[in-house]
Amino acid sequence: MKRNERITNMRKVDVIKEIVEKTSIDRTKVSIIIEAFMNTIESSVIDGQKVIFRGFGTFQLKRQNKKVARDMYRNINIVLQPYDVPTFKPSVEFLNLLKNNHS
Asked: How deeply is 5 buried, as exposed, middle or buried, from its count of CB atoms within 10 A (0-12, 13-18, 19+)?
């Protein structure tokens, strides 16, 4: 990407619109499918399962360990309890595709 290019975000509505244009499937049906797809990934990850898409990447939960942080205003230590964070790890193929398109 060149320095002058503006980065734009792709929202769910944009994904739906692009799929409709590429497949000519009804917008309502595509919207229902995308919503079901996202709900399936969310519920699977929440249940502790990895969701793996070969050639794309993996969605999973990662456990953040207990940490000690510092409250600078009150000058005290705070213990942060362990918690889970949803993560996405891109596949090697996806990373290579990104490298080849942005070099």
From this structure: exposed
57: β partners: 53, 90
Residue with tokens 């944009």, as numbered in its chain: 14
Is 86:45 a contact under the CB 8 Å cutoff? Answer: yes
Reported as a single tens digit per residue, the pLDDT across 9-22 is 999 999 999 999 99
pTM of the prediction? Answer: 0.74
| 80 touches 54 (CB < 8 A) | no
Give the HSE-up count for residue 31: Cα atoms under 13 Å, Cβ half-sphere: 6
Per the CB < 8 A criterion, the answer to whether 87 and 60 are in contact is: yes
